[in-house]
Amino acid sequence: MDEELLKIFDQNRNEIGVASRAEVHQKGLWHESFHCWFVHHDKDAVYLYLQLRSPRKKEHGNLFDITAAGHLLAHETVRDGVREIGEELGIDVSFEELVSLGQFDYCVSEEQLIDNEMAHLFLYRCEQELDGFSLQEEEVSGMIKVEFPHFRDLWRGKRETVRVFGYEIKPDGEKCVIDQEVGRDRFVPHQLSYYEAIIQKIAEKL
User: Fold this and answer.
1) Which of 81, 96, 153, 182 stands the most exposed, by the fewest C-beta atoms within 10 Å?
2) What angle do CA 132, 155, 189 make, to 5 degrees?
3) DSSP notation for 119-164
4) % the chain with pLDDT above 90
5) Helix (H) and strand (E) counts for the chain?
C-alpha cells in the first residue's frame, strides 16, 4: 500500500504543500483531520457511542476513542471525511446528516510522534443500536456507549469512573460483552482541552 499523502499548512492555516504521513508526524507539520462523534437517544438518556481501537493499532490500541476519525488525504475535502465512517463502522452516512462543531487545533507530542491537526469536528445523531455496525477489523475491535452526562463529568473531574456498555470482537472472532466501570486511563489520552471543548460543543447541540 502506498503511503498516505496529506496536505500541510503553516500556523496561519495557509496550505503550503504535500507530505507523507510519516514526515508529517515526524516533523510536527500541520494537517487536516476528520473527527465525528455519535450520539444516541434512548428514552430519556443520551449516550455517546465510542469505538474500541484495535490492538493492532500502533498508537493507543485497546483504548476507547472518537466514534470515527482519521486524516484527510491530499486530494480530499472536508466532505470526503465521511468515508472514515463507512470504512471504520460499515454504515453509510451522508455529509448532510452531520452537524458541524467547528474546528479545533489538536496538538499532541509523544515519544515518536508529533501530531498537529486542524481537526474538523462533527456530530452525528445515530438512531441504530450498537449491534448495527460492521467494524473494520484492522482499525476497530469493538463499540461501547456511555451516558453523555457521565462522560462530561468524568472529564470535568466530577467523577472518577463511568460505566460503559458494548462489545469487543476478539482476534478469533468471539464477540464478548463489555460492561465495566472505567476511568480516564481507558480512553485515548487526547489533551484535556480537546475533551473539554468537544463536550461543550456537543452539549450545545443536544
Assistant:
1) 96
2) 75
3) EEEEEEE--S-GGG----TTTEEEEEEEEHHHHHHHHTTS-S-EEE
4) 89
5) 4, 11
